[in-house]
Amino acid sequence: MNLIIKENIESHNYKIIVGDNEHLPSSLNEEELNLFKAFLAKEDDFKQISNLESTLFLVKSKGDREKMRAAGAKIRGVLDRKITEIAIYSEEAFLYDVTEGILLSNYQFNRYFKDKKDKENLLDSIAVAAGNQAKLDELNSITKAVYWARDMVNEPLSFLTAKQLAEEIRLLGEETNLNVTILEKSQIEALKMGGLLAVNKGSIDPPTFSVIEYKSPNAANKKPIVLVGKGVVYDTGGLSLKPTPNSMDIMKCDMGGAACVAGAIYLAALQKLPLHIIALVPATDNRPGLNAYVPGDVVTMFDGTTVEVLNTDAEGRMILADALAYSKKFDPELVIDAATLTGSANAAIGLHASCVMGNADDKYFQQLEKAGYDSYERVVRFPFWDEYFEDMKSTIADLKNIGGPTAGMITAGKFLEHFVEAPYIHMDIAGPAWLNAASAYRPKGGSGYGVRLLYQFLKNYA
Fold first, then answer.
1. Mean pLDDT of 194-220
2. 81 carries an active-site annotation
3. What domains are there in the chain, each with its CATH number?
């Protein structure tokens, strides 16, 4: 979808009017203006009027950005599929959030339908009476990146193997000025990335390790920010097999962290943020076949740490640990990982935020929290005390890959911290990365969570 700016959009049959008593939209005819003023005097926040030459959607601003996005999604939901263009009348203060809600709710994953004619995107374009072109271009870029991340999470393993995920990332590099390097299995073996190789032992498909670099010539940071994303393209649990209902049946989403960080660096490149960013994506599926790793194995990781495997379903931390250790070579200013890592995170706060923790300075967490509220991809900070690390110590190796029955999201984070030297933030996105039902502008399935959050964080950082 492309945004179109037109000075005269009177001819449109579908008009969205947004404002409040202090911000009445311009370019309305007298009848429309009177209808909107009457609407503002009522308690309703949203109203549809279809008895005029044009269908009007009236929206009160109330200064709440998320309600504006939700209103955009609501409008998209009631529009007939034959409509290809709508117009928005609004002051700039409210224009972008309503537009973003329409854009993000316009997504459909329709690749596998035999007949796509009833499953096509709703709108081809949105016309606005006024607006800043750079901000509208940014909304287009955000939409592209979020759609890409959603597509990746929604793709089944029959298509999106680790090798295909790396190829999809490579294509992002061709479109932008991202430098993408893909390490194949032989290179991963040469590097002795024991965690990634161990998880991959049960699969007939080889692992990949993607290194994505974006470096602006005007980078504000002297040392790069490194993003690391869990790329388990499908997770059976390995020999510690998951149950199928409400578990294994949605485990194509276990590369949501990879989609998040790749989508975020792609968006940073599209928007030419003045930063130096590197994203690392270790990728494999986790299966119980062939010579699959087993509970009781001891694995030597990329940095030489030995890990006793007590549960093969705690595989995400195994591949992330190698990537986090690999990040040392870049001498980063900050390392942030994103992963659909633990059921504990989902149990703790559900679908409405991610669990974050780490040893980075408080200012980074404050910036991340602000970015979370701005994008409404919220985060909740958890304690990161050293006592939690005690649960990860093994009696026969340096570490074990699971902790005790409580605080699983934190003990997993403490395990990962061991492999990072730079200031570190861990994001467990297990709750919001996949939705079993649509919510406002977030569709059922892959939500694309974290792309807008990290982009907003990086934008503010720059």
1. 98
2. no
3. 2-131 (3.40.220.10), 142-461 (3.40.630.10)
